[in-house]
Description:
heterodimer; A: alpha/beta; 11-stranded mixed β-sheet; 10-stranded mixed β-sheet; 9 helices; 21 strands; about 40% strand; B: alpha/beta; Rossmann fold; 6-stranded mixed β-sheet; 10 strands; globular
Amino acid sequence: MELVQSPAAAGFTEAAFARFLKGRDEPAWLTQSRREAFARFQALPWPSAQDEEWRRTDIRGFRLDAFSPPAAERTGSEARFGILSQALDAQGVARVEHRDGGLARGSDPVLPKGAILLDLAQAAREHPDLVKRHLFTQTIAGGDDVFAALHAAFWTSGTLFYVPRGVELEAPVLSAIGLSGGAVDLSHTLVVLEEGARAVFVREMASLAGADAALHAGGLEITVAAGARLEMVDVQNWNQATWHFSHERAVLGRDATLNWTVGGLGGRLARVNQEVVLDGSGSSARVNGVLFTTGRQHLAYSTRQDHRAPHTTSDLLYKGALKDRSRIVWKGMIRVEKAGQRTDAYQRNDNLILSDRARADSIPGLEIEANDVRCTHGATAGRVDEDMIFYAQARAIPRSEAVRLIVQGFFANVLDRIGVEAARETLRDAVASQI
Amino acid sequence: MSRVLKIEGLHVSVEGKPILRGVDLTLRQGEVHALMGPNGSGKSTLSYALMGHPRYEITAGTVTLDSQDLTELEPEERAKAGLFLAFQYPTVIPGVSLGNFLRHAVSNVRRPDRKEGEDLLPMRDFRKELRAQMDELGVDQEFARRYLNDGFSGGEKKRAEILQLAMLRPAFAILDETDSGLDIDAVRIVSEGVNRVAARHQTGVLVITHYERILTYIKPEFVHVLFGGRIVEHGGPELVKLLESQGYDWVREKHPEAAQDEDEMEAAVRPPQVAGKAS
């Protein structure tokens, strides 16, 4: 097959890559990893509407050559951004801040008990073995594509969050990622909890000044080792000029627990592959999606619950509300390998459609090779129930106030699953303000 | 000042089919009326039409509260004017706690000019009042935190209706088959709640039922029989006894024209279930 270089890739050319590498002071293994990724980037075909993964997500309006590799200069600024970031600020949580692909503010304060929260590029220099052991070691969620390769070749910013064996951190830890109009963020987030560790990790992506199109092509790798427990909250709250492509994967060891919340509020178009791999027996994952779209936003999530060991459980609940001409696509897959006996897996997607021109697609899927499992799925899409509205009206609550209450109520059961109070309340408020 | 709810010559259609064919009924504050009738006679239609459900089209007649015409008002305006409907099938609203829902409802009734987004009643005052009302009704304080009617038993749903009645203190309360599906203890508890509210706030009560059971607890002074979409008999408590011992056959014989309409309605439309699928 003839390899077709994407005509849109002008901003990320061979010459640009060479210049990019020259400007970086990195270990040889990392440079090598970038070169391999760049080769993949050049070889991979541009997504087309014929690909199953892209069939419902049209990126013809996206011009990669409008963007260039991030400069990765340190950009100091004290101003806070992001709704969740500000809510957590009151609690004085440890945080790392990035802006436009550069580190804006390093770990502050430094974590106790040997835990590490650090800019990823800095971590690659200061903890090379640790980073090498985990960075880009997982299979790419949803399979390789130009965005995964672009990300792996050109990433500049990112965060390492590492919790050593047996260490329990009570307070949440925050990674805040800001992006200006016209800028590019290719950050990579690496979360590693060693055996028996416990932690809460919160990530928020928010736009800074400027209304020009911006690009995020990111990656997230999570390792939750045996007996460890991670509460993860990830909120994407870009403005509606931002293109968002993300590959996210978590691997759970024996008896590990993960509660992973995804907030999808922003972006012009977002394409996310999210996977949880239940690799150790007795491991358990809960995935909570809170999505609200307005205008002409398009959010597409492909989720996968991969059961590779016996006695594992996963429970995915994505809830979305759609206004205006926005669209949400959710495509889910529960996969149970032969070894995954006694798996208990559930996936559900409920969408509330608030306008005639909004559209939601739910495509659940099951692939089961084991014979003693319990796997179920469900999906609903509908308008606000008129009977509920009338009932509220009969109690003196006018229609628009009733709709607001009902929509807020719609999200309650997924919000109730979030273990971080500040995140739960911030998302609750964010949803309420969108209605 | 005693307020008056007056229904005159009310005709109501559902999806073009006439259900009520001229209902006249006058309630004064402090009075207790019972409206009885067989299944499909139009009892629930009357309650939904009074409350303003959009599926129930008033084709003729008027409903006034004092001098105010209710028929052109949105349901929430009717509620603010002093009308309350206890639903036969209270609707489940997932994720909205009974307490939060009621705080919105009570705020709107007590501050009729309140606009959406404006302040609700202060939480402290509201909670205190709600707690007292829940104690009187014998429901656990946890009740207010539960999602509205979600997973409620039949008895809990009806108690939640009466709790809302007690908090909203309407001038007139329509109880649409509040006794249906309840055991005798629950009927008694719910009835005592209604009586307490009515005595305290001079509420005019219209009990819609086809069983006499609830009427041994909520004692009506006036009893009306709805048949074939109109009220064919007016009387006192003795009418309840008569229906209990003899059923509706004598009504049918005495009002052959209404009987014909009743049979047509029975055949044409099953009693419409609009509010809340009984899940």
